[in-house]
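One chain is below:
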Amino acid sequence: MLQKRNYFPLYIFLISWFIINIIQAAFLGVDGDEAYYWMFSKNLDWGFFDHPPFVALLIKFGESFGHGPVYTRLGNAILSTATAFIIFIGLPEKLKDVKYFAWLFPSILIINVYGFITTPDAPLFFFSALFFLGYKRYLEKDNILTIILLSAAITGMFYSKYHGILPVIFVLLSNVQLLKRKSFWLIILIVMLLFIPHIHWQYEHDWPTLRFHLFERGLRKYKINFTLDYILGQLLIWGPIISFFFYHKAIKITTEEKLIKAHVFNFWGVLIIFLLSSFKNHVEAHWTLVAGTSFIVLFMDIIHKADEKRKSVFVTLAKINITLILTLRILLIVPGIPIDKINNYKPFVHGKSWADSIYKYAGQTPVIFTDSYILPSIYQYYHPNATAIGYNTKNYRKTQYSINHTERDLKGKNIL
């Protein structure tokens, strides 16, 4: 039965997914954070103030073919497509249903967002999918290839974003017997060795990322909105419509099957960790994307166990969700619509014209932007030969510009 499965529809879906993301990438200006990470890619290093370096490497790959939004996002579009494929082949054999997978994957809002927008979350999602594929094979066969796969996946998660450690912790909690395997400790040793360059970079720069996240990041007085916004965000990013179908059933999942159990631990563990964080500070909804692979696996398990009527309901909800998401994605690239008045979306639509208006006046004169890492990044993204610096006062958070010290090159020069 497994040999007779027709995967041709899966390949058509993957190609379609890639094409849609490339089109979106080409016709939508870059976000402020994307421009900031592009600035990282101009001078590759083993670390940066905010994040580990993989996102910069991903952008550097795309920009090797040219400069512009489609090139900045090329690596991300490839990675997103590869993530979908890896998640599918990492499913337990009984859950490998192309039809329902092809409805589920594009109906998840957060996956659409990071299907083309290039941030550290997309490579973290990719490597977490690779990690669970490796874990699936590790449960079946403990050999050198599996050890290499798991080591590469864990290292990739660590080099993408620091909370990439969460899937490792929750998989271990779901199966503490892993501690008895010699190969498990070999994997840990390999990952530690591969991560040394980033640790050394942190040491050389006086641990800027740790200082920022643990001590310097401004803590706010707790507001109930921190928690309520987080809960609402988790309903929206995993759907929104299909998430109600999911949560109703997912809360009841119990199993002794080690792979499914690992996904249960990872999904709920990640959501609980960030829920607790919301009692201390504001939490961005997309930070839980590291649980995305587990969300899909558990959802496929729910669909597999559902009767035909409920499967039909899921497909209907997925179609509505996809229609809404596609409509939003189309509206994003249509000029002159009300959505471009929303502050968070302005850089996508108005970033280039804003940068051009400044460059027309400034030309090659260096421009300093106060208390912003986004503005100098967008300005220089659209005018790479210009000089732009983010200069932060004591009232603003530190950024990569705080440790670049590029303002030293401006001594004795005229600036704007």
Q: What stands out?
A: The mean pLDDT is 92.
